[in-house]
Design brief:
binds 3-hydroxybutanoyl-coenzyme A, alpha/beta, Rossmann fold, 8-stranded mixed beta sheet
Length: 470
């Protein structure tokens, strides 16, 4: 199909972003919103996003005018009649989407492809609500749509042969990389991403570590572009909670139970960027308490010892703080267990550790040039607990036959800006390290979803260090 005129219904952050993506690729777009106020918000999104590109010199004023000139904004759905493709990006409610698809089905020409940008609802159920189930697909973009390079193209058991590859070709024309998948809750990205974000909320709720410390640990320790709480605020806490609910409905897995703390934020109307406040954006925390550690003993961390010695700290037999390498016995109220991951220093504190020692350790690690992440001494601390469970989910997804390793890696790199895909991260961390870390997590929490995926276990047992790829 030529795809010369595309309709976008719903011009919130995602819909407006999707309209921009099509217009940038030279395709005419009719953007539809329910009322004038919502339409004005959509126009504002488009103006701001293209204005930002203009300011950065990425677009000339003439190019920007051309892009905006390709977009017709209207409150009337009649303009969608002759569209070759209509994508909906309306709120994530099945009843709302079914009503819209039923209307579009009656309105649009028979050849129009109807696509949903749903993040987790059943594309098959939407297809079945129309008289053209063979011409209904999922076309899932990522926030911010003009920037993220992935489109998940979702076919169902009733999709016409060839249509999925036509839509994948269209995604390439838009400058995106398509990953084609079957209709399963959360597809690839949300099914992997959301349980990881939810897990971060659980760690916060359990007091394992603070919001900013968890964000820093995952950005600086793993190299992810945003911390989990920053990303939840971008996605929207209500959307995140809805996706978790849908995942749980389908899987009944303990890993997919929405965190009660996440629900509380949603109930309180703190939805993230869209409402001005979510995990971030509230009143600033008070000044961190100060500690005055003057003397220190460092055990099993030669580089840290050197950096502290260079900063003038002398090794002492009766120190204010004892910093020990991971695995060494925490032992006394002055002892803090330190795990260094890149520039992040996780500071594990036990029930014995004195608050003075935690504050002292935090300041010392800052002086030594690390980003301290104080946390409770739990299996995997923050980074390994979040990352290994996330990687294990990816192995489980591959093992279930839902998606190929290359597609899972590409999806997380392009959809979420990961520096490497889950399998690449797994191989660089070491399969045995991840398997053993998962065993420790499982032994502590007894949560079935934390048990190492059988395939991971088998590869380690067989002495392999890479996943088999075709
Ligand atoms: N709209 C348009 N463009 C934007 C933008 C926005 N909201 N935010 C950033 N940009 C552009 C900037 O203009 C800049 O463009 P340029 O390279 O052409 O100059 C580029 O993006 C990089 O922006 P910045 O340098 O200002 O910021 P960062 O380097 O911090 O990158 C980010 C911002 C691209 C958002 C990066 O932090 C990232 O990749 N984050 C991960 C986002 C993610 O995971 N998204 C997926 C969420 S899941 C989802 O959407 C599915 C849904 O179903 C829930």
């Amino acid at each position: 199909m030529a795809f010369e005129l595309v309709g976008v219904v719903g011009l919130g952050t995602m819909g407006a972003g999707i309209a921009e993506v099509f217009a940038r690729a030279g395709i005419r777009v009719t953007g539809v919103e329910a009322d004038e106020q919502a339409l004005a918000r959509g126009r504002d999104h488009l103006d701001r996003s293209t204005g930002r590109a203009l300011q950065k010199g990425k677009l000339t004023p003439a190019e920007r005018a051309e892009i905006l000139g390709r977009v017709t904004l209207t409150t009337s759905r009649a303009g969608l009649r002759d569209a070759d493709l209509v994508i909906e990006a309306v709120p994530e409610r099945m009843d709302v989407k079914v009503a819209l698809f039923t209307e579009l089905d009656g309105l649009c020409k028979p050849s129009t492809v109807l696509a949903t940008n749903t993040s987790s609802l059943s594309v098959t159920a939407l297809a079945a609500a129309t008289a053209r189930p063979d011409r209904v697909v999922g076309m899932h973009f990522f926030n911010p749509a003009p920037v993220m390079g992935l489109v998940e193209v979702v076919g169902t058991v009733v999709t016409a042969p060839g249509l999925v590859s036509e839509i994948a070709d269209l995604a390439v024309r838009l400058g995106k990389t398509p990953v084609t998948v079957g209709d399963r809750a959360g597809f690839v990205v949300n099914r992997l991403l959301l349980p990881y974000l939810n897990h971060a909320v659980t760690l916060l709720d359990q007091g394992v570590a603070g919001r900013d410390d968890i964000d820093n640990a995952m950005k600086l320790g793993v190299g992810l572009p945003m911390g989990p709480f920053e990303l939840l605020d971008l996605i929207g806490l209500d959307t995140a909670c809805e996706i978790m609910g849908v995942l749980f409905e389908e899987s009944r897995s303990d890993r997919h139970v929405p965190s009660p703390l996440l629900r509380s934020y949603v109930d309180a109307g703190l939805l993230g960027r869209k409402s001005g406040r979510g995990f971030h954006g509230g009143p600033a925390d008070g000044q961190p308490e100060k500690a005055a550690a003057r003397t220190v003993r460092v055990v099993g961390l030669p580089e840290l010892a050197d950096r502290l010695a260079a900063a003038g700290f002398k090794d002492s037999d009766d120190p204010d703080v004892i910093l020990v390498a991971g695995g060494a016995d925490p032992g006394s109220p002055k002892t803090v267990r330190v795990q260094l991951t890149g520039q992040v220093a996780q500071l594990a504190t036990s029930v014995l550790t004195a608050q003075e020692a935690v504050l002292g350790a935090r300041d010392l690690l800052k002086i030594a040039g690390y980003t301290p992440v104080p946390c409770r001494d739990r299996a995997g601390l923050v980074i390994d607990a979040l990352l290994f469970a996330h990687l294990n989910d990816a192995v489980g997804m591959y093992e279930s036959g839902y998606a190929a390793i290359g597609d899972i890696d590409a999806a997380m790199r392009l959809g979420c800006g990961y520096p490497a895909g889950p399998f690449e991260l797994l191989e660089s961390a070491g399969l045995a390290t991840v398997r053993d870390g998962l065993r420790a997590l499982y032994a502590e929490r007894r949560s079935p979803s934390l048990a190492p995926a059988p395939l991971l276990d088998h590869l380690v047992t067989a002495g392999l260090t890479r996943f088999p790829r075709p």
